[in-house]
Every structure is written in structure tokens, then in C-alpha cells.
Design brief:
The complex is a heterodimer of chains A (237) and B (251). Chain A is of the alpha+beta class and 237 residues long. Helix content of chain A is 37%, strand content 24%. Chain A has one domain: 4-Layer Sandwich (Glutamine Phosphoribosylpyrophosphate, subunit 1, domain 1), CATH 3.60.20.10. Chain A is built from 5 helices and 10 strands, in the order H-E-E-E-E-H-H-E-E-E-E-H-H-E-E. Chain A starts with a helix and ends with a strand. Chain B has one domain: 4-Layer Sandwich (Glutamine Phosphoribosylpyrophosphate, subunit 1, domain 1). In chain B, a hairpin with a 2-residue loop joins strand 2 and strand 3. Chain B is an alpha+beta fold. The termini of chain B are far apart. Chain B is globular and about 55 Å long. Classes of the chains: A alpha+beta (237), B alpha+beta (251). Chains A and B meet through strand 3 and helix 2 of A and helix 1 of B.
């Protein structure tokens, strides 16, 4: 059946539609590059959205829990093998995504008789300064791009992602403390979930609001930490 | 998905056990040791690496942190010992990140056993024997106490009640530590300032009788590598800190 080009395109299109439909249940995740480090934020069930990958690398993802886990394990394995065989400084996000994760996702997406990987993700690499931080957006089909601003949002709708990232960027200054950053991200999370516009929405207070029934998962790739591992979970009271 | 980093690595192939050949002169000697003090476990060692009668280096770091709550003191062939330490560092971090929990102390102790056993062919050939000391503390248990393990080159591990050590200089200081443990002053009751001085004096004693152990030269700020392990993690004493303890120590 798929030997015919039209059939193949049709199957791929159906697959894309199926994945997008499954992603509708997911809630957005965020990465923000700050002077203190890179803040990663998601709302889940505790250790289900935001993860440590390697010394300077973190992941925030939405999608099917099993697929998030597959992507996480693949990233951790690739990073640790590279770090062991060469050195920790040789583990870079661009190489990790270009040579390992992106091709794995693309292959999985195009294997139309195998179950698809339903995951949208953000990978972050901590630099010595905010200018050297790298944020990458990796899609379920292996397509990926690198952030041009200091904020990256992963959601099921790319237009809404861009609007949310711009709103977060506009409402933060370099002097804002981390609770304020988390608070602004969480406000964006609520607006995205409810499908509302960001036009005219005011900046929230410094304290992140509580979300009943779910857990706010926040972590920082902390520039001030002595290393070699810079990742640490954050708790806000 | 098991968190086993070693499973990802290709199997190491050692040269055949049979056959004759000239063995390269191994780099070994060393004095490394660990003992309990009032504030945790002190683990220390010299900086010298030798090849036969030649001093290969006097700046070798033999006390290596495996993660935030475990250490290894290496004695034996450095090529194998450093690789084992590096493998364990990666394996512990890999497990913590992939399994979202820290590896238990018992599993860490056994991981080192397994590496030593895998190194058996090189050990039997006389080109790769490693005899390490391991110190660690269970994380997540508020009542946990740090423990010391020593290993034979084949991988058997033994928990040390009071102290352990390895290397050619250990024979000398074993007697000293045994004496102190039984007739005092007891190292286990010493504050860290005294324990650090004791560690340096032990090393000076070892160096007095073992040419392959590097000594301590307080006037040149050359001290032993000394680290403290307890529930708070690992603390490394800088030469300046050790100099201050040394100066304040009673003769």
C-alpha cells in the first residue's frame, strides 16, 4: 500500500493528525534563560515533565508519559556515553540533537506501521553566561529549531507558543527574581490551557499560584552551582 | 532502562592469559587510607606515582570523588584505577539521572567489586592489579553513618570497623592506627582538626619507611590529600587549611 507515493503521503498525514490529536491532552512546558541560569517549568505529577539530562543539560516535555520517558532515556544514554568516551565539555546540545535525538524521532515518525512517539520537548544547555545558553525546540517528527529569544515554550500549537514566549519575554526584566519568572510562566500556562489571548493580560504577582490536583515542577540549571552537575529542582512556598 | 551504564559499554578485551611476553613495569606503590573520626570518615593519601625506582609524578590525585557522597582511594596500576573511578563516576550519575533516584550504598560497593572482578585477567597477568579503598554514606537516611570498605584485587569487599588502607606504605601505618585504636588517643573521637594532622603524620610515617610514598613538607605547603565524608557530603581540606591545623597541633 505505502509503495504508492500518494498512499505514503496520506499515511504520514494521518499519522501527524493522530499525534496532534493525542497531544491535545498535554499542557505546555517552558524554558527561560536568566542571569541565575535556565529555569525549566511544567505542571505534572512530580518528576513527569522536567528532567535532568546531563551536567549542563535539562529537558521539559509534554506528551505521552511513555514517550517522554523514551526520549529522556535516549538523551541520557547518548549524553553519558559521549561524556564518558570523550569529556563532559564534548556533550553539547547541538550534537545531541543533530546526531542522536532528531534522527531517532524522525525515524520513529516515518515508520508508519510502528506506534508513533507522541512528545513535544524543549532541551536546554547552560552556558557560562546567558548569552551562551542554548534552548532547543524538538518536535515529535524530529524537526527542531533553536530559540532566538531567551524564552521557549512547547505546546501543541506553534502560533500560541510564539505568542506566549513573546508575552513572557515582554513581562520580565533581568532583575526579576525566580519566583516572579515562575509566576509569569504559570500565568502563561493557564492562558494557553484555556485557549485565551495574551492581549491586555496584566503581569501576575511574584508568588506562583497553587494548582489544585497537580504539581508545579520547576528546576534550575544553576549558573552559581559549583558543578559538575548544575541542575537542581526548585521549590516555591 | 535498568540504569546500568556498564551495559551500554562494549566489553573490554584483555590480552590472553597464556603466552610469554615482557611485562611493562607497572606504576604502583602509594599509601592511601581511611579512618573514622568524630565528624565522619577521613580519607587521605599521598601524591606520588612510581615506576620501579623512578618517581613518575609527585602530583597524582589518588582520592577521587565518585559522587556527592562516595569516594575511592586508589592503589595499584593507575591506568586501571583511574578508568575504574571514571567508570563509577559516570555509572552513579547515569543511574541517578535515568532512574530518578540515587544508587544505594550497597549497590555502589558492589559496582566496584564487579569492576575489579572484570579486571581479573589483567590482575592475574601482573599488569593491572588495583586494590582500592571505598568510603560512602547512604543518602536519604538521616541516621546513616559513613562506612569504609576495602577490597582485594579480585573484587572481594570487606567493611572496615575502624580503618582501612592500601598501597605499599600501608603496612607501616596499619600498626600505628591499630595502636591508636586500642590505646589512644582514639582517632574516632578526634575533631576534624586533629584528624587532619593525624592523616599527615601517618603519611610522614609511611614515607619514612617506603620510598614509593610521597611525604609531607609543611614548610612548602605540601600536605596529603585529605577529605572528610559525612552526611553533609564531602569536604576537601586545602593546603592552607591543613597548614592552620598543623600549626595549631600540639607536639
Amino acid at each position: 500500500m505505502i509503495e504508492e507515493p500518494y498512499r505514503w503521503l496520506d499515511a504520514i498525514s494521518n499519522r501527524r493528525e493522530y499525534i496532534r490529536d493525542r497531544l491535545k491532552g498535554g499542557t505546555p512546558v517552558f524554558a527561560v534563560s536568566r542571569p541565575e541560569g535556565i529555569l525549566l517549568l511544567g505542571v505534572g505529577q512530580g518528576q513527569s515533565k522536567v528532567f535532568e539530562i546531563y551536567d549542563r543539560h535539562g529537558l521539559a516535555a509534554l506528551g505521552h508519559p511513555v514517550d517522554i520517558e523514551k526520549l529522556r532515556q535516549a538523551a541520557i544514554e547518548a549524553a553519558h556515553l559521549e561524556g564518558f568516551n570523550r569529556s563532559a565539555r564534548d556533550v553539547t546540545l547541538r550534537r545531541l540533537i543533530s546526531f542522536s535525538l532528531s534522527s531517532t524521532l524522525k525515524n520513529a515518525f516515518e515508520q508508519i506501521f510502528a506506534p508513533p512517539i507522541i512528545v513535544e520537548s524543549i532541551f536546554a544547555e547552560l552556558g557560562d553566561s546567558p548569552a551562551q545558553d542554548i534552548l532547543a525546540r524538538l518536535h515529535y517528527d524530529g524537526d527542531h529549531s533553536y530559540a532566538t529569544s531567551r524564552v521557549l515554550v512547547a505546546h501543541r500549537d506553534s502560533a500560541a507558543e510564539a505568542e506566549a514566549a513573546e508575552w513572557i519575554n515582554d513581562n520580565l526584566t533581568a532583575a526579576d527574581p525566580l519566583p516572579k519568572v515562575a509566576s509569569v510562566c504559570l500565568a502563561a500556562w493557564q492562558l494557553l490551557n484555556e485557549g485565551k489571548s495574551f492581549q491586555g493580560v496584566s503581569v501576575p504577582t511574584d508568588t506562583p499560584p497553587q494548582i489544585s490536583g497537580k504539581v508545579l515542577e520547576v528546576a534550575l540549571l544553576d549558573r552559581q552551582r559549583p558543578g559538575p552537575a548544575y541542575y537542581r529542582p526548585l521549590q516555591f512556598k | 532502562m535498568t540504569g546500568d551504564f556498564l551495559a551500554l559499554l562494549p566489553k573490554t578485551t584483555f590480552p590472553s592469559l597464556s603466552g610469554e611476553g615482557r611485562h611493562p613495569t607497572p606504576l604502583e606503590a602509594t599509601t592511601v587510607f581511611a579512618f573514622h573520626c568524630a565528624e565522619g570518615v577521613i580519607i587521605g593519601g599521598d601524591h606520588r606515582a612510581t615506576a620501579g625506582h623512578t618517581i613518575f609524578s609527585d602530583h597524582t590525585e589518588k582520592i577521587l570523588e565518585l559522587d556527592s557522597h562516595s569516594l575511592i582511594a586508589i592503589a595499584g596500576v593507575p591506568a586501571m584505577a583511574f578508568e575504574m573511578a571514571r567508570t563509577l563516576q559516570t555509572a552513579f550519575e547515569f543511574y541517578r539521572r535515568s532512574q530518578l533516584q540515587t544508587m544505594s550504598l550497597a549497590a555502589k560497593v558492589r559496582a566496584l567489586s564487579k569492576l575489579l572482578r572484570d579486571n581479573l585477567p589483567a590482575t592475574l597477568q601482573g599488569i593491572g592489579a588495583v586494590s582500592p579503598v571505598f568510603a560512602g554514606i547512604e543518602t536519604g537516611d538521616p541516621n546513616a553513618q559513613p562506612v569504609i570498605f576495602f577490597y582485594d584485587p579480585l573484587g572481594a569487599h570487606f567493611e572496615a570497623a575502624a580503618f582501612a588502607g592500601s598501597g605499599s606504605g600501608m603496612i607501616t601505618i596499619k600498626s600505628v592506627l591499630h595502636y591508636l585504636e586500642h590505646w589512644g588517643p582514639h582517632p574516632a573521637e578526634m575533631p576534624v582538626s586533629q584528624a587532619v594532622v593525624l592523616a599527615n603524620r601517618l603519611l610522614m610515617t609511611a614515607a619514612e619507611f617506603d620510598a614509593a610514598t610521597g611525604g609531607v613538607h609543611a614548610d612548602q605547603l605540601e600536605f596529603a590529600t585529605v577529605k572528610l565524608l559525612n552526611a553533609q557530603g564531602i569536604r576537601t581540606f586545602s593546603p592552607q587549611e591543613q597548614a592552620a591545623f598543623w600549626k595549631d597541633a600540639k607536639l
